[in-house]
Amino acid sequence: MNKFYVTTPIYYVNSHPHLGHLYTTLIADTVARYKRQRGFDTFYLTGTDEHGVNIERAAENAGLPVKQHVDGIVNEFKTAFSSYEFTNDHWVRTTDDYHKRGVRQLWQRMKENGYIYKGKYEGWYCSNCNEFYLEAEAGAAPDGTLNCPVHERPLDRIAEESYFFKLSAFQNRLLELYETNPNFIRPESRRNEVMSFVRGGLNDQSISRVSVKWGIPVPDDPEHTIYVWFDALSNYITAIGYGNDQFGGEEHYKKYWPADLQLVGKDILRFHTVYWPAFLMAAGLELPRTVFAHGMWLSGGRKMSKTLGNVIDLAVLQKYFQTDAVRYFCLREMVFGQDGDFTYEALLDRVNADLASGLGNLASRTLTMVKNYCDGEIPAPGEANAELKDHANEVREAVAQAFAVFDREFDQYNFSRGLEAAWSAMARVDKFISDAKPWDLAKQPNGREALNLVLHTASETLRHLAVLLVPVLPVSTQAIWEQLGESGQVSEVAPATLKWGGSSLRGAGARIGEIKPIFPRLEKKKIMDEIKQDESASQAARSAENAPIVEAAPGIAYINIEDFTRVELRVGEIKTAAPVPKADKLLCFTVDVGEPQPRQILAGIAQYYEPEKLIGRKVIVVTNLAPRKLRGLESQGMILAASIGEEGRPVLAGFLEEVPNGAKLK
Ligand code: MSP
User: Does the beta carbon of 23 lie inside 6 Å of ligand 1?
Assistant: First the structure.
């Protein structure tokens, strides 16, 4: 039997679960279900990444022993995921004992093979990324220190004895891997990115810390703990038995490794396609077959983040939307591999259009007609006229076509296209029903044969679609299966064994089950209003945690620090300034705000400043204001000025000391 091993990243327990985490887990679940249904001996792994200084600090803030703290968050993840019918075979935790043993064994193999050595490390470290940055990569902070390019928080200068991994020795082997195995990194665009990064040269990597206590001790040198990414990446082999007795150990590991699909967000691609294969090469182990980097769910056009307050809360999602609705939306709406914007409006529209009016409606109209016109028994196909028979055959072909396309697309992880194929078969049968008008046939004295053919064809389409869609819609397909009067688990029916007309072979007297709505239509306005209320209540709860200690004076609406941090203010230097033709108040500037290209910004200060005198002046720029057009010119930010007197005379804000362009104000 062919095997299939699929993994997700293991999630950091320093933040609470959100839609992004759910997404990768949901994709992996769909793939695992899809493979199982097609006869693969499948192993599906997910879990949590629980070591590192951040987690130690979070526990300290919570006033809890670290293990107790992480146990709580792991439970939160498991609870948040529990309503999505995930079928993971295991949940790995990096604090599990078997994992620690496996990590140490991997370390030892790499060391014996000469790829780990002891040295001294000095560099700029971000404890949020758990990564060192070069000075050139970091941004300057106003106080002269360096900022993390991702988190924009000060980097720590760390100098310590450290173990190093000889990553530099793997440049050619990695390039050869990418070239000879085009499927190792997918999609293609990501592969190109990684290749150019590796071509740029690889430095040896520090893989231990003496400053971090909450980690796995280095074998024979317990002063050092193993770098969290080394620890975390190893989970993919330790969880299936590498270097320990988990699931029986070695034999189980050998059965499933190498992984067939490692799903990751594009944010952590480099770790999985440069470090990870190099670690495995260094230990003499096989390499995963495919690392697939999917895109990010954005919210309001920006990556979801707790600081921005735009994460999609899993509790809200679960309160208003059925399991299958969320699963379907995530797979259908986002082109796998690209970024996608999440909005509740889009989710509601999809559910109503594709699930309520699509699949749900097909199920209820078909089953209701079987109940009303055929006494609840799915009829054998009747001997209808040639034209109707042709149409019935076209439906049958459309279903066969949907099966072929669905598999072809799912094998390539093109989920949305696979689903489109199923929905086009649905559209075909819907048209067939509407054209044939079974409600009229039922009234005609000689309409019985035709009626039977229509309802047989519709029921068979539904039965086939239930089998096809089970990896994506496990709950509703089972409900449809039972309402059709079928027994057992639809997930256990292999598509290859399905036969058209199988339902009429269920034996005389077999009846459909009780008809219940599968996807009730959602009232968009009502639900949106309720969601908004829920969101502002949770926002208020969050703000209350940071509530100011003074009461707002009359006329002042206090904001909290989160509100303030949503406005991005940076130091800019005016590079060029010119009047805007036919606009006597406007000046058009190019301003260097520390980005590769200066920005074009317009300001209504022409009556008070001579443009040429402003060149070289340092100003404060709002850099995350949505661009807008003024007199046909795009303004990509706003320059701050005080507004004086009744006429509102602008006085540009500036600095008395030297400040670098791009420095953030906070
Ligand atoms: N612990 C590391 C991974 C170690 S794997 C050996 C980590 N954890 S994480 O909690 O930050 O999770 C990152 C992963 O969560 C992403 O790679 C992606 O799979 C998923 N997502 C997090 N936010 C996401 C979105 N906004 N959109 C889609 N997926 C996202 O990095």
Answer: yes
Residues 415 and 485 placed together within one structural domain of the fold: yes
Q: State the catalytic residue, choosing from 129, 255, 431, 585.
A: 129
Could you tell me if 11 and 71 lie in one domain? yes
- Over the stretch 109-133, which tens digit does the pLDDT of each residue have? 999 999 999 999 888 888 887 777 8
Tell me whether residue 129 is one of the annotated catalytic residues.
yes
Catalytic residue among 100, 126, 330, 391: 126
Q: Based on the residue annotation, tell me whether 21 is a catalytic residue of this protein.
A: yes
Q: How many domains does the chain have?
A: 4
- Which of 203, 223, 243 finishes a domain? 223
CA distance 603 to 622: 12
pLDDT of residue 336: 86
Domain of 330, in residue numbers: 325-511
Determine if ligand 1 sits within 6 Å of the CB of residue 24.
yes
Query: pLDDT tens digits for 476-500?
Result: 999 999 999 999 999 999 999 999 9
pTM: 0.80
How many A from CA of 343 to the centre of ligand 1? 20
Q: Return the number of other C-beta atoms located less than 10 Å from residue 137's C-beta.
A: 14
Q: How many other CB atoms are found less than 10 A from the CB of residue 493?
A: 19
13, with CB counted inside 10 A (0-12, 13-18, 19+), is buried
Show which of 177, 200, 223 is a domain's final residue. 223
Q: How far is the CA of 265 from the centre of ligand 1 (A)?
A: 6
